[in-house]
Amino acid sequence: MITPTTSEPLTLPQSHAPTILAVDDDPANLSLLSDYLQEFGFRVIVARDGESALEKAQYGRPDLILLDLVMPKVDGFETCRRLKAKEALRDTPVIFMTGLTDTKDKVNGFQAGGVDYITKPFQYEEVLARIHTHMGLHLAQKQLEVQNTQLQQQISERERAEEELRLKTAFLEALVHRSSIDGILVVDSQGRKILQNERMAELWEIPPSVANDRNDERQLQFVMERVKHPEQFREGVTYLNSHPDKISRDEIELKNGTVLDRYSSPVIDKNGKHYGRIWTFRDITERKRAEEALRKAHASLEQRVEERTAELKTANEQLKQTNRLLRILSECNQQVVRATEESELLREICGIIVGPGGYPSVWIGFAEENPGRTVHPVAQRGFEDGYLDTLRITWADTALGRGPAGSAIRSGRPCVVKDIQTTVDFAPWREDVTRRGCASAIGLPLRGGNGRAFGALIIYAKTPDAFHAREVDALMELAGDLAYGILSLRARAEQRRAEEQVRRLAELQSAILNNTAYTVISTDGKGIITSINPAGERALGYTARECIGTLMSTRFHDPDEMAERARIFSEQLGVPIQPGFEVFVARARRDLPNEYEWTYLRKDGSRFPVLLSVTALRDAQGSIIGFLGIANDITDRKRAEAEIRQLNSDLEKRVVERTAELAAANRELETFSYSVSHDLRSPLRVLSGFGKLLQEEYSAQLNLEAREYLDHICKSAERMDQLIQGLLNLSHITRAHLRHEPVKLSTMARTIAGELHKAEPQRVVEFVIAPELTAEGDPELLRSVLQNLLGNAWKYTGKHPQARIEFGVDKSGAETRFYVRDDGAGFDPGDAGKLFSTFQRLHKADEFPGAGIGLATVQRIIERHGGRIWAEAAVEKGATFHFTIPAQEREFERASTAERSRRG
């Protein structure tokens, strides 16, 4: 029987009246039990035997059954087994009421399906507490089933979104990266780079450090350095950026002679919204796929789902421990399910732990991956505002990292501080925490799917050693639920971002297909056309409705051409290929280059040539699901090639005629050189000789003015002889046969430096010569280059008490640039254009001697080697002369051929 007590009545946290079926063969006991339960808001159904209980349970559908064990006819064990056999009552909790205390009877009761025992006589509090506990567990189980159903729906929706993203990504990557025969650059409406394929970098020879730099201006500057007319290039880009609706197509000539076909088109959707601009340059390569990242994200999410399922099962067992922990876990789980925003979830969890949980203080912190490994508080309850801002906590293994928060994050396990007053590692925070009435604490790790902790939940208690093993287990379950909730919210946010990316990719794909000038046709694996873009409709004269569903090869191609290509490809691949669709895709099936010229047939029967690239479309497993063809109308190019062939023929004729003229001019130049060398220099030497005799023999007889006149005559004659010699040297360099062999420039430079020191040993000049510099060229002529450049550096540092002269090399891409640098007189940068002209000097003869032939000679030698030379300087800050000597042997072969032509 039930023994009444004077305790306050317990109440259930439910908004409706739960139904309890009470079964007992004692009428008095049954009446007393029914009245008592109704007093606390329960709806009670009574039965006095097992058969009646079975009948009333079938239609009454109780939330819980109180069942006596000892009854006539059908005892409590059999009644329970028959109740559990019914589908509708299988999950209904059954609590046995009995005076039997034998352990065997209890075991039989649990085997029959009971969840608990109440021993007669029992107390009101025990009846209500057990009813509360098991009805709460039953409710939590139902909520768990609902959550699992919702989670399964979310997984199905995510899988559909991922499949859609994979298909669209595969199509877009095939179009832009694997199928495109051009370099492609896509920018947004502000001109910022959105997408660029590798073919773009190959065409422009852009190094990865520049191509991957977020600073678009750096790549633009690199491209402009390669363009022959950079200002014109920049003007074109600026014009199109300021006219977003304009379409442009032109040719760009690079400094190395390469000509690129450039096409630019705005990206505009069907509603007229402007998204940016597409730049295409001839040919493309594949760009990176996103499928692997999606697969990893899918696997990670599945792992988190599995972990969460296991955690929820564990939480279901832990809910049996105490009513207080049950309430905390139940309400926290509800917040995890309902939360839509992370900060809101953290605030609510802290409120539940301090409110219904009865703990005085709690805070949550996230681990930061910075040098100090700090812990950043993100939510709290029980502290005054601003307290957490003063905390200095880290998860590194230091004095400030050995508290409950740092230790839990670092180890991934709970850290219990049994007594704040005696725990040494808690010393940095002891005074502040004890002043707030706390005596013990626990740090619970918040772990991610990889098992590592990304944060911690720290709970304080008012009494020492408040966190026993059972409570630690329950709180760890709470921390696991909170971590799952945080990760789930982040996963949902990531899913929303992925869905937005799918939408944007779809819009971008549609805009690209609708605005490109190339014909783009997709087929299934058997060659049936599945799509054709507007450019293809315009080029072929067919509508999309006429094309889709038909076999591609029978619609647009010449049967004779297909037959001939089938024969060629059969020989190349070693397998028989029949004329038809397989001709176009046989190489694509084998991932071989598949770009060829074809003849397209329009609907009106007219023909035009195209350059067609066909690529296989594959699913995530690598199986072919279709093919993508991109065709470029090359009618204009074919016409231009014919014109170029005619121009080349005319040019070859003019070259022959010009070669003959140059041979005659060289013969005249040799005659002139001989005349200068003999006929002009002979009287000049006579004049110089007699002038020196007058100075030596009659200088004393002349007055001062006459001696000055005679001195001017001698110096002018000497300077005239130097100019004639310089001209002869320059003529010799122009006509001399060019040898081609390795030259050790560093060794040659050190020899010249030694000669300069010997000539003027009183000078203090430091030579810095880079070791092992070599070049391919004529040794005698390259020595003349270094003699002139090092000699100039020696001469123009002559007025400085100390000087430094360098000979070294700079690397710029594939080009090697040698340089000679000094810290001497320098020159005005505005006069740099005069440096390499014959007889042009930037300093007066009385400042620095010279004939003005040396740099002209250097330039002629460098140009004969296929290189170039230029200078940089500032007044009294020295000068640097840069020059290149291409290593390609063909440069010297061309120079030698030209030399032989000039010599006849």
Structural description of this entry:
It is a single chain. The protein has 904 residues and is an alpha+beta fold. The protein contains 26 helices and 29 strands. It has a 5-stranded parallel β-sheet with strand order 3-2-4-5-6, sandwiched between helices. Strands 9-8-12-11-10 form a 5-stranded antiparallel β-sheet. Strand 21 (607-618) and strand 22 form a beta hairpin. The termini are far apart. 29% of the residues are buried. Mean pLDDT is 80; it is low at 1-15, 284-291, 317-321 and 888-904.
Topology:
Layout: E1 2-3, E2 19-23, H1 27-39, E3 43-47, H2 50-60, E4 64-68, H3 76-84, E5 94-98, H4 103-112, E6 116-119, E7 122-123, H5 124-178, E8 182-188, E9 193-196, H6 198-204, H7 208-211, H8 216-226, H9 230-242, E10 248-253, E11 259-268, E12 274-282, H10 291-318, H11 323-338, H12 342-354, E13 361-367, E14 375-381, H13 404-411, E15 415-417, H14 430-435, E16 440-447, E17 453-461, H15 469-515, E18 519-523, E19 529-532, H16 534-540, H17 544-547, H18 552-556, H19 559-573, H20 581-589, E20 595-601, E21 607-618, E22 624-633, H21 635-698, H22 704-735, E23 741-744, H23 745-759, E24 765-769, E25 774-777, H24 779-796, E26 803-812, E27 815-822, H25 854-864, E28 869-873, E29 879-883, H26 889-902
Parallel strand pairs: 1-7, 2-3, 2-4, 4-5, 5-6, 24-26
Antiparallel strand pairs: 8-9, 8-12, 10-11, 11-12, 13-14, 13-17, 15-16, 16-17, 18-19, 18-22, 20-21, 21-22, 23-25, 26-27, 27-29, 28-29
Helix pairs in contact: 2-3, 5-10, 5-11, 5-15, 10-15, 11-12, 11-15, 12-15, 19-20, 21-22, 22-25, 23-24, 24-25
